Amino acid sequence: MTIFPLAGRFDPARLFSFKGGIHPETRKFLTSECAIEDMPVPTVLRVPLQQHIGVEAEPLVARDDMVLKGQLIGKARGPVSANIHAPTSGRVLAVGHFTAPHPSGLPVPTITIRPDGDDRWGDRLPRMRPESADPDEIAAQVAKAGIVGMGGATFPAAVKLNLRARYDLHTLIINGAECEPYLTCDDRLMRERAEEIADGIGIMARALGVKQVIVAIEANKPQATAAMERYHRVLGYALKIKQVPTQYPMGSEKHLVKTLTGKETPARALTAELGVVVHNAATAHAVHLAVRYGEPSISRVVTISGRGITRPANVRALIGTPVAELLAHCGGLAQEPERLLLGGPMMGQPIQNPRVPIIKGTNGILALAASETRDREVMPCIRCGLCVQVCPMGLTPFELNTRIKAGDLEGAARVGLLDCITCGCCSFTCPSNKPLVQTIHFAKGKLAEQESRKHQQEQAKRLAEARQERQEAIAAAKREAMAKRKAEMAAKKKREAEAAAAETPKNGETVK
Ligand code: SF4
Ligand code: SF4
């Protein structure tokens, strides 16, 4: 359903502003001039079966199996899920649970592989010629390759490519904003792999059947903009390379769409309802590798930064590489970090255990020294309203905070808890240093837990009802069968009695 058909109804030369947002110090200089380096194969790989939004993949290997690089080891389950492939060749040490690269620190189903050092490829996917391929074939190849949104959203890319079946799509926006401070992995990828990214963009545009493509890059990445401008025509598409203002959270899908089209995406709706699909620049690169070379999604570029790191860098590492090995690759910790984060300083999550692996959506590892953090004394709210002014979703963060603290999660949901994109603008701005976004994270986690419990209870109730129905049906069938048998026996007895009566000599008759 298209509720705001926009095709050709916005001026791609114009830019619009969005309400709220902040301008934090970007500190990208720590790694912006660090060329992407390949990290050697680590000593162990822990590959979670849930690296994406949707249902976890089903394991296809068992302990002690030997696997080859690129081999399918986890199969997507259901319409929103993603395949998982072996990042290198080696032996499966375990198919079990391991700490998730997530603040919960809870164990998730994980395949642990001991690399054999040969890094030997198995069968790759068949190569494709996208110029003559059908859109469905391209989407199917992207699904087979297990590609998910590499900007951190981790939504299965093929599901987005298939949105053309449900929405009247006209524009593909490539998100090269990379608005989180410190992170430079997309910047470097665009500077070093512009031609490959442009090819991936053309392939996705063809799969989506859109009319126009806009590549949006924040104004603080002039080299990336220049690099992408060299490849402005691919697969018959003219790519419009647009510089967008350096403003956090410009990389949020909905805010990027607002900046480029002037249109608001309705709350909890997809940008596809406006006819627009947004993909990350690194996702376009992964699509190029999958379609042209048959390579599944088994590695990514990660920014390792912060004053706590000895040698900040941009590293291409295999999915499943433990954080500790990446830190060691960068010379280890220069000092005990105040905060160790997966992701950027605004939306990143604390690393509970450095043995956790990087996954397809991991764009950064930060070791922040005390001088880089804002951990100060929390004071009472002074109702200054600054958090409201900077909230890009138009929420009232202090009210959310009050309701959550009072345990009123339903009330918090009524005032927009679920619309919050956990961007952290409110916490960043609060003069009382209130941990607003952390409180919101906690509440969202609680709500998700409640939802999951409710779902489990409903499922258990459905199963119990189904079992009772089955038992009643079996009992009814038994009763019916017994009644039928009884009727048959009665009929038989009657027939026998009648036959016996017919054979009994009547008075005066003689048996011959
Ligand atoms: S910014 Fe902080 S002090 Fe000001 S209203 Fe919001 S929560 Fe209160
Ligand atoms: S974290 Fe949520 S409430 Fe806070 S500014 Fe961002 S969207 Fe608004």
Automatic annotation (TrEMBL):
<feature type="domain" description="4Fe-4S ferredoxin-type">
    <location>
        <begin position="411"/>
        <end position="440"/>
    </location>
</feature>
<feature type="binding site">
    <location>
        <position position="423"/>
    </location>
    <ligand>
        <name>[4Fe-4S] cluster 2</name>
    </ligand>
</feature>
<comment type="similarity">
    <text>Belongs to the 4Fe4S bacterial-type ferredoxin family. RnfC subfamily.</text>
</comment>
<comment type="subunit">
    <text>The complex is composed of six subunits: RnfA, RnfB, RnfC, RnfD, RnfE and RnfG.</text>
</comment>
<dbReference type="Pfam" id="PF13375">
    <property type="entry name" value="RnfC_N"/>
</dbReference>
<dbReference type="Pfam" id="PF10531">
    <property type="entry name" value="SLBB"/>
</dbReference>
<feature type="binding site">
    <location>
        <position position="384"/>
    </location>
    <ligand>
        <name>[4Fe-4S] cluster 1</name>
    </ligand>
</feature>
<dbReference type="InterPro" id="IPR010208">
    <property type="entry name" value="Ion_transpt_RnfC/RsxC"/>
</dbReference>
<feature type="binding site">
    <location>
        <position position="420"/>
    </location>
    <ligand>
        <name>[4Fe-4S] cluster 2</name>
    </ligand>
</feature>
<dbReference type="InterPro" id="IPR017900">
    <property type="entry name" value="4Fe4S_Fe_S_CS"/>
</dbReference>
<comment type="function">
    <text>Part of a membrane-bound complex that couples electron transfer with translocation of ions across the membrane.</text>
</comment>
<keyword id="KW-0813">Transport</keyword>
<feature type="domain" description="4Fe-4S ferredoxin-type">
    <location>
        <begin position="370"/>
        <end position="401"/>
    </location>
</feature>
<dbReference type="InterPro" id="IPR017896">
    <property type="entry name" value="4Fe4S_Fe-S-bd"/>
</dbReference>
<dbReference type="InterPro" id="IPR026902">
    <property type="entry name" value="RnfC_N"/>
</dbReference>
<keyword id="KW-0472">Membrane</keyword>
<feature type="binding site">
    <location>
        <position position="387"/>
    </location>
    <ligand>
        <name>[4Fe-4S] cluster 1</name>
    </ligand>
</feature>
<feature type="binding site">
    <location>
        <position position="426"/>
    </location>
    <ligand>
        <name>[4Fe-4S] cluster 2</name>
    </ligand>
</feature>
<keyword id="KW-1278">Translocase</keyword>
<keyword id="KW-0249">Electron transport</keyword>
<dbReference type="InterPro" id="IPR037225">
    <property type="entry name" value="Nuo51_FMN-bd_sf"/>
</dbReference>
<feature type="region of interest" description="Disordered">
    <location>
        <begin position="449"/>
        <end position="512"/>
    </location>
</feature>
<keyword id="KW-0408">Iron</keyword>
<keyword id="KW-0535">Nitrogen fixation</keyword>
<dbReference type="Pfam" id="PF01512">
    <property type="entry name" value="Complex1_51K"/>
</dbReference>
<keyword id="KW-0677">Repeat</keyword>
<protein>
    <recommendedName>
        <fullName>Ion-translocating oxidoreductase complex subunit C</fullName>
        <ecNumber>7.-.-.-</ecNumber>
    </recommendedName>
</protein>
<feature type="compositionally biased region" description="Basic and acidic residues">
    <location>
        <begin position="449"/>
        <end position="498"/>
    </location>
</feature>
<feature type="binding site">
    <location>
        <position position="391"/>
    </location>
    <ligand>
        <name>[4Fe-4S] cluster 2</name>
    </ligand>
</feature>
<feature type="binding site">
    <location>
        <position position="381"/>
    </location>
    <ligand>
        <name>[4Fe-4S] cluster 1</name>
    </ligand>
</feature>
<dbReference type="Pfam" id="PF13237">
    <property type="entry name" value="Fer4_10"/>
</dbReference>
<keyword id="KW-0411">Iron-sulfur</keyword>
<keyword id="KW-0004">4Fe-4S</keyword>
<dbReference type="InterPro" id="IPR019554">
    <property type="entry name" value="Soluble_ligand-bd"/>
</dbReference>
<feature type="binding site">
    <location>
        <position position="430"/>
    </location>
    <ligand>
        <name>[4Fe-4S] cluster 1</name>
    </ligand>
</feature>
<keyword id="KW-0479">Metal-binding</keyword>
<dbReference type="InterPro" id="IPR011538">
    <property type="entry name" value="Nuo51_FMN-bd"/>
</dbReference>
